[in-house]
Backbone:
């Protein structure tokens, strides 16, 4: 049965939530974390949590699309697929079946900065993950027939997720225009021509360089005894050859000296607008100010952009703002908007720019600022109710800086002042440092005038 708050209680709760700071419930998360580096060079990050008899076991490799080269984009994502093609002990596609037979589930994902493999199981089945992951870390078999088949799968994935998705395609093109030197120039899935032409030997070389213990780390969160689990992990992973730590430093773009604009024409029902500004990551205190700015602009239905442009002026169907806090290298702060049918994209861009300029000129009201901080804190804390999220947040901070920086999030958010917001907006959210992407919708091909047909103006199309 679900109990509902009375209207009076609900009002009191909302007043308390939006006006008064939340307690630091998540403070000290890292104080409960243990770190050990095995003889193989593999870092192990452990967090005991006995609220449920479950464990999330995660292996993170410090390799993503930022580690690729021109002409070889998409190798990180392709290798993620091939990691499920088996070893001498485990047959192709058997990995996931074994996890499922033991009552668990698994997942894998690739980003600009990392590739991660995740299993969630009952705590008494954690040895299954230990055995499977240690086996494929050192004994992966890469076969030509598997490679050719999986490459076709990845090409189809690219078609569906990007080429046939106008908004995703625009965002990909925006990144390519915003970054000219940094490897963030290319998409995680890779360019189609590169996917078509890289070889199994390319993949084997890439695997040899980046898939070794010294370039990886484990994160385990859940119901276990640390010393006992560590012995099992050390037995399975500790004797794997260490390998050589690959170079992680990558070239960064010089400061942008003027606005860049791109236009994409694709079959779509509505136009779409994305604006990207160059910003730092969490190694700069300003990145936390940008977190608050994103929340003020588009954090829910009470945010500025939603309230003004979606609800009041009815210009937009949706709007979003995103800050790349946990990116390994400096990345983008993006604002995106989908107009309502019939609305002018130029009018939308002007309205968004006015809201950005307002941040530079008018101090944010203390009530609005506190509400944004409370919402960020609440989201950060409540999501930690999941073992998997606790592990992921530790891992993502480890990728960007160190897992120990997790405890900096709430204090850093709380320190943000109206003056900080004005200063940071003036520093980063400026026209000369932005790239604007606009999707121009085309009608379906069957509705277009074809060669030999007569145009609406009476001309024969040639």
Residues:
């Amino acid at each position: 049965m679900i109990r509902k708050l009375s209207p009076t209680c609900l009002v009191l709760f909302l007043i308390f939530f939006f006006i008064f700071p939340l307690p630091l419930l998540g403070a000290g998360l890292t104080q409960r974390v243990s770190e050990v580096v095995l003889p193989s060079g593999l870092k192990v990050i452990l967090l005991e949590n006995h609220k449920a008899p479950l464990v999330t076991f995660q292996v993170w490799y410090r390799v993503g699309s930022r580690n690729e080269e021109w002409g070889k984009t998409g190798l990180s994502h392709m290798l993620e697929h091939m990691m499920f093609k088996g070893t001498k002990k485990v047959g192709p596609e058997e990995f996931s079946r074994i996890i499922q037979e033991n009552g668990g589930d698994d997942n894998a994902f690739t980003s600009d900065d990392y590739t991660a493999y995740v299993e969630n199981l009952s705590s008494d089945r954690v040895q299954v993950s230990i055995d499977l992951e240690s086996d494929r870390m050192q004994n992966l078999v890469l076969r030509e027939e598997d490679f050719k088949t999986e490459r076709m799968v990845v090409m189809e994935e690219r078609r569906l997720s990007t080429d046939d998705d106008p908004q995703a395609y625009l965002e990909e093109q925006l990144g390519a225009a915003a970054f000219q030197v940094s490897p963030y120039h290319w998409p995680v899935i890779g360019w189609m021509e590169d996917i078509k032409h890289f070889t199994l030997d390319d993949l084997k070389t890439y695997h040899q360089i980046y898939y070794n213990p010294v370039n990886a780390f484990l994160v385990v969160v859940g119901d276990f005894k640390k010393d006992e689990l560590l012995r099992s992990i050390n037995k399975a992973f500790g004797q794997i050859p260490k390998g050589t730590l690959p170079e992680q430093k990558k070239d960064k773009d010089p400061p942008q000296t003027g606005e860049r604009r791109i236009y994409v024409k694709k079959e779509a029902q509505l136009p779409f607008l994305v604006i990207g500004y160059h910003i730092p990551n969490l190694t700069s205190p300003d990145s936390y100010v940008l977190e608050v700015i994103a929340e003020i602009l588009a954090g829910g239905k009470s945010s500025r952009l939603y309230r003004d442009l979606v609800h009041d002026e009815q210009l937009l169907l949706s709007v979003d703002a995103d800050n790349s806090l946990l990116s390994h290298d400096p990345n983008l702060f993006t604002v995106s908007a989908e107009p309502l049918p019939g609305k002018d994209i130029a009018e939308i861009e002007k309205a968004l720019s006015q809201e950005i300029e307002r941040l530079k000129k008018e101090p944010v009201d203390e009530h609005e600022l506190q509400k944004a901080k409370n919402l960020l804190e609440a989201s950060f804390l409540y999501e930690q109710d999941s073992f998997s999220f606790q592990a992921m947040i530790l891992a993502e901070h480890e990728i960007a800086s160190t897992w120990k920086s997790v405890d900096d999030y709430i204090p850093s958010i709380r320190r943000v002042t109206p003056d900080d917001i004005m200063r940071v907006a003036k520093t980063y959210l400026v026209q000369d440092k932005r790239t604007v992407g606009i999707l121009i919708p085309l009608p379906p091909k069957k509705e277009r005038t074809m060669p030999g047909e007569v145009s609406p103006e009476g001309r024969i199309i040639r």
